[in-house]
Amino acid sequence: MENINNAQKERQNAAKITAIVFGVIAIGVFIATIVLFPNG
Amino acid sequence: MTTATATATHEDHHHGPESGLMRWIKTTNHKDIGTLYLWFSFTMLLIGGAFAMAIRAELLQPGLQLMEPQFFNQLTTMHGLIMVFGAIMPAFVGLGNWLIPMMVGAPDMALPRMNNWSFWILPFAGAILLSTFFMEGGAPAFGWTFYAPLSTTFAPDSTDFFIFAVHLLGFSSIMGAINIIATVLNMRAPDMKLMDMPLFVWTWLITSFLLIGAMPVLAGAVTMMLTDRNFGTSFFDATGGGDPVLFQHIFWFFGHPEVYIMILPAFGVVSHIIPTFARKPLFGYSSMVYATASIAFLSYIVWAHHMFLTGMPVAGELYFMYATMLIAVPTGVKVFNWISTMWRGSMSFEAPMLWAVSFVFLFTIGGFSGLMLGIAPADIQYHDTYFVVAHFHYVLVTGALWSIIAAVFYWLPKWTGKMYNEKLAKVHFWWAVISVNVLFFPQHFLGLAGMPRRIPDYSLQFADFNFVSSIGGFAFGASFILLTYIVIDCIRNGAPAKARPWEGAKGLEWTLEPKAQYHSFSTPPSRKLIEQESQHS
User: Which of B110, B178, B219 sits opposite A30 (nearest CB)?
Assistant: First the structure.
């Protein structure tokens, strides 16, 4: 991983954003399961 | 920017791993973490397998032989949980870790530190789960589906530890899925288009979306169980205005996609091995991708076919029955494509191909019995019988596990730089494939004759098939001793492998050294190389 060029660094930064987006989706699904399902 | 470029060109990319135990604890390298996942899952497979041996020993004859019914229930519960969450899922994550960066021409996973965390949560979760055996009241005994109120009102105290373990396992899976999505979408070689990606990468990408959608639902279910048990809520308690059937809806909304989480990567593995040993490009690459996506979509809208006997309206039964039937269409496309790939190919039958071909045949048997179970009126007869046990073991053992063993034999030369003993591998294959059918095929007959699942004792009319099934079980269990020997023998004494040990193999991973170096693809592969190694070239 040390020998990564700039383009790869940029891709890695984009990957962090992707990870945050999907992390938020996962948390949203978790909350929705508890809040929405039991109330029909 | 200049400084960054200067740092980037400084040549430290051939440094090796740290030595000793700290290498494995601190590692952020996808190959190390892949290895950790694979050995962890193999250990859990042996533990879950030991539970299965005890179950089959109890069922060898009618009457109670070895254990109390309560302990039998603990064993069946833990066998299921360990195999699903500890063996099959981590094994595929291990394969994904090892292979996805190499297949997409990336230097590592997108988030290597999170990758380390994803793995190291697992042994603790597994230990917490197993420790429940030693707690007062014993381990959870409500089955791997942990239906309320058995898992809430009537469960032992250790259930709270089980809940914590499931939370940790889910957390690990979600982080793993996020890492794979980010790796595939962002770290893929710039010249690799989505439709250039190998099928294993495609199937894992789609599986990751399933994990993101399904695992938080499981986390929600066990959180509600936790509050019902300890904080006075009544999500699943009818006396407080809740609904136990709600638990089943939520569980299976997770549980059915979970089935495909465990089988889609298997489809990917088989889609690599069959073209290699048929020496032909994969038939219908695009249709394979679309079929995988269709299966994933359909997996979210069929969950209540597990619940036909809960008294749902006929309209609901009809909907879930027909939606379930629909899954046979994209699955049929896949089986058709694998067979068409083999058609008039120059086939040879090295160990990975033997496992892959038997996967196609045996998984299809499991698929057909699944269709039978999906027919609402027929399910009244089959529900909760050994027919269900036979069905899901054909799908998960001769499906998911088969593909994992196929993958290990196929990519072992790339992981170790050495070849395994082909003769022993073939002996192992025939031993396993015969014994697994002796183990599980009679269970279809037991189920059709009415033997319920999850019972330690049974009526005399079920004795013969249970005896045959148990003998097959012991033989199948013993086959893993030989598998362990073959893998360790390969690592220690195997003959040196070529960079591309299989004549017909395609894929960027085969362009690397015979044993893939610690860091690969520091420079992304060229368009020409990607096209040359593409599955549809």
Answer: B219
